[in-house]
Design goal:
2 strands, binds zinc ion, alpha+beta, 2 helices
Length: about 70
């Protein structure tokens, strides 16, 4: 055994196995392309963090639901 087994992680962009090694500057991505795609997605707002941005957009629907649930005399 030489201990050269590479640690494999799933690329967040394409889901393929990416080698987690010092030789892979794009980790946890499998390639530079996937890294750029992920960064681009964040920059363009395609990815939304649940509970932050969605809060404002859902507030109207939320209020409606609250009114239905709460007993109003
Ligand atoms: Zn990838």
């Amino acid at each position: 055994m030489t201990g050269k087994t590479a640690h494999i992680v799933n690329c967040p962009t394409c889901g393929k196995g990416a080698k987690w090694t010092p030789k892979n500057p794009f980790r946890p991505f499998c390639s530079e392309r996937c890294k750029l795609i992920d960064l681009g997605a964040w920059a363009s707002g395609e990815r939304v963090i649940p509970g932050s941005d969605a809060d404002g957009a859902m507030s109207g629907e939320d209020e409606e639901g609250a009114h239905r649930l709460s007993p109003v005399n």
